[in-house]
Specification:
about 120 residues, mainly beta
């Protein structure tokens, strides 16, 4: 069992930066691939970025490539999402999730544990 708790969301102006974190409980955190998804009002949840258990591979949605960076610290059971050059269209609830396998990380169905989400709002 893995429990995930996001933190660090908030309000930022367009062009600004924000960092969100996801703290995991459980000693098996390092065996899971981790991903970030987001859901804007009235829209479906969409993939943002994922990282393998070792951090050796990262996958980014085209919409955030070059602006967002995912990282993880297995010693701290934490995954991070650094968001730069934020745009109003990045406004959403951001969820972290854990996947037991390395394949299909862009699909929400690959993840078995989810956090409660943290709100990120980018004003224009």
């Amino acid at each position: 069992q893995v429990q995930l708790v996001e933190s660090g969301g908030g309000l930022v102006q367009a062009g600004g930066s924000l960092s969100v974190s996801c703290a995991a409980s459980g000693r098996t955190f390092s065996t899971y691939a981790m991903g970030w998804f987001r859901q804007a009002p009235g829209k479906e949840r969409e993939f943002v970025v994922a990282i393998t258990w070792s951090g050796g591979a990262k996958y980014y949605a085209d919409s955030v490539k070059g602006r967002f960076t995912i990282s993880r610290d297995n010693a701290k059971n934490t995954v991070y999402l650094q968001m730069n050059s934020l745009k109003p269209e990045d406004t959403a609830v951001y969820y972290c999730a854990a996947a037991p396998k390395w394949s299909g990380l862009v699909s929400a169905s690959s993840y078995v544990y989810w956090g409660q989400g943290t709100q990120v709002t980018v004003s224009s």
